[in-house]
Amino acid sequence: MRDGNWQKFWVNMSEEKYRILLSGYIDNELSPDEKQDFEVHLEGCAECRKELESFRKLKEVTGAMKYADIPEQVWEGYWSSLYKRMERGVSWIFISIAAIILLCFGSYHIFIDFFLNSEVPLLLKIGIGCGIFGLIVLLVSILRERLFAKKRDRYDEVSR
Questions:
Q1: For helices 46-63 and 32-44, what crossing angle results, to 10°?
Q2: Are 151 and 143 in contact (CB under 8 A)?
Q3: Alpha-carbon distance 127 to 131, whole Å?
Q4: What distance in Å separates the CA atoms of residue 25 and residue 31, rounded to the nearest whole number?
Q5: pTM of the model
Q6: pLDDT for 23-34, tens place per residue?
């Protein structure tokens, strides 16, 4: 590096050191030597003084913030809602299991009694088979679309 580049490098490193000390200075966490060094630097650096002032304003604003006390009714409503959602979720799981079992049982009997029956015309088997296959594809498509839309709905949590 040329001499000018080294000088810029050390100036930038020095400025970075004081930017790190700025936070400790605001929170009174610096040792007496660091504090004195920082204050001497502040006298000659308008940029650090400006940043110090903005940090003080930020600390003042954030220091005045308080957590809101949540009324007991809100907590009761939250837990009630949570239990309702859990109950509904478990109910939907059991309903889904029952539907799967019934569909499998019905599909098995349709296949055995209808499609393997040699008395039913082939054209009728093809037509009904295509209709069943089309309904299955449509159902899967709709379910996939609904799940995709629900996961990406920005307004899902907004109450009306």
A1: 120
A2: no
A3: 6
A4: 9
A5: 0.36
A6: 888 888 888 888
